[in-house]
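Supplementary Note 2. Why include the ligand at all?

Several targets in our set were suspected to adopt different conformations when bound, so apo predictions alone were not considered sufficient. For every target with a known small-molecule partner we therefore ran a joint prediction. The input for guanosine-5'-triphosphate is given below.
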Amino acid sequence: MTTMESLIGLVNRIQRACTVLGDYGGGTGDNAFNSLWEALPTVAVVGGQVISPSSGKSSVLESIVGRDFLPRGSGIVTRRPLVLQLHKTEEGTEEYAEFLHLPKRKFIDFALVRKEIQDETDRITGKSKQISPVPIHLSIFSPNVVNLTLIDLPGLTKVAVEGQPETIVEDIESMVRTYVDKPNCIILAISPANQDIATSDAIKLAKEVDPTGERTFGVLTKLDLMDKGTNALEVLEGRSYKLQHPWVGIVNRSQADINRNADMMLARRKEREYFDTSPDYGHLASKMGSEYLAKLLSKHLESVIRSRIPSILSLINKSIEELERELDRLGKPVAVDAGAQLYTILEMCRAFDKIFKEHLDGGRPGGDRIYGVFDNQLPAALKKLPFDRHLSLQSVKRIVSEADGYQPHLIAPEQGYRRLIEGALGYFRGPAEASVDAVSSLCLERACKEVNCRNSVELALAANTSLEKFREESKKSVIRLVEMESAYLTAEFFRKLPQEMERPAVANSKNQAASPSPAAQDLYGDGHFRRIASNVSAYVSMVSDTLRNTIPKACVYCQVRQAKLALLNYFYSQISKREGKQLGLLLDEDPALMGRRLECAQRLELYKKARDEIDAVAWVR
Ligand SMILES: Nc1nc2c(ncn2[C@@H]2O[C@H](COP(=O)(O)OP(=O)(O)OP(=O)(O)O)[C@@H](O)[C@H]2O)c(=O)[nH]1
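The joint prediction is reproduced in token form.
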């Protein structure tokens, strides 16, 4: 047989785990998980707010705890649900409080608890006076409490005060309703005795959601403030409004007591005395007061939890089945720890690298297309270069005379030759760069095809980045080859030229024997410029043959060979920089899918843990 402590403690633990996972009820939509939070029995404290007369909700809670710890002030003070978990400790032990969001801090000073509730409320809602459904969990350990969990909700209000959004009235009501609508919710409806019970906000709401009064506990405060000669027996004896559970009357500290900082323990004793000596309520004394209320609720909560355990278990089992099915559908669960993720990713990179190499080396199609670039595309592009235009008679004349300047050349236009050759060599940059791009896109195409099989956009991006790096290197190398040709011309080639140059002049002299100086005559004639064009063309064609052989060498050296050697190393170095979530990204292309899988896995863990905890409680068997 278990104790009350273990049952309420069990629910407390499950409730805390739910909050950590973001389950505090209210989930809607197709993807919403079953809410375990909503299945857990709770006591929700409901009362009217601010508008006179106030219900005394805060005073009741403080009286149950026996400490002053709730924020007070004008406007809506409670703006987030406060899950108040009370744990009874041994007589004589020190009282302290703990927040779920500050697990390592023990609060001994309850004034600091009040401040932390305010600060933590503001952390989520800002100072905007908005409300938020995200609960604050506060545990109080004290010899002066009973084991009990209460959820303090924002007080029901009728008008928005300054600084609050217009919708606050409906917002609060709908938040309170998400709690009190649930059949597992025990409603602690607090109303002041100096107000007509028919107009109590708390009772009106309770009547609506729990018409038979099965799960409502009516609490009447401020009995001491009733007009002389009147009493609240009509309500307390259940004649004004009948509930299944007896009404409990309360006498809290007055405002004057609060101002005086009157001791809570003393207040409890005074309350006891009030009922013991009251001519009106004496016959009900043993069932009145905040201490009695706390014990009554604790006992009731325990019995409700006991009765609900089978249905909670069946919800948990059903949810476990659903989650396991969904995880199956989502595919193999991602290895949760970073080590396993890293292993999987490296395996994937190795497989990718191996197949990629096979494509380049032969054995798989791909490498032959790179050869096609060198054997067909590059020679064709070289052939198409516009040397005819560059070396047209007109262009040669212009370039040579520009190079000569004011002093025409005497024998051979050295500067003119250089300018013509430099200009022509510049055209080689285009085919050189195009070869690099073609090889790069073939490598990338191969890589992407391979990566697609592995379903990882991240891997594709990593391959792309590294191939891009190789492409840049390769481009620099081929451009350097072209620039080297411009930087130093092969003098040997031109040394052979004078003899050849003479040949047309000799032929000329045979035909025009009477001509006084044919060579001199031709020095600035068209024939002379045509010869220059033809010499330059021959030189450029020699360079073209060289580049046709060296460009492929540079591409293979910088791109293909590097891709084979360094792609895997590049993956390794990139991956070792990543951690946690980023590793997960490498494994899967869809962050939404990944998120859902993680959520499902966490939920599954929560449900399994909850099932184990419930199973561990002896009475279930
Ligand atoms: N004399 C007397 N005063 C009470 C009683 N209950 C509450 N009060 C006073 O009523 C005022 C409001 O009490 P709270 O406990 O703050 O009431 P609340 O419903 O939480 O109201 P807000 O804090 O304004 O939301 C305080 O001055 C209390 O001292 C009671 O039973 N008797």
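The longest strand covers residues 185-192. Residues 47, 49-50, 54-59, 72, 77, 155, 221-222, 224-225, 250-255, 258 surround guanosine-5'-triphosphate (CB under 6 Å). Comparable summaries for the other entries are listed in the accompanying table.
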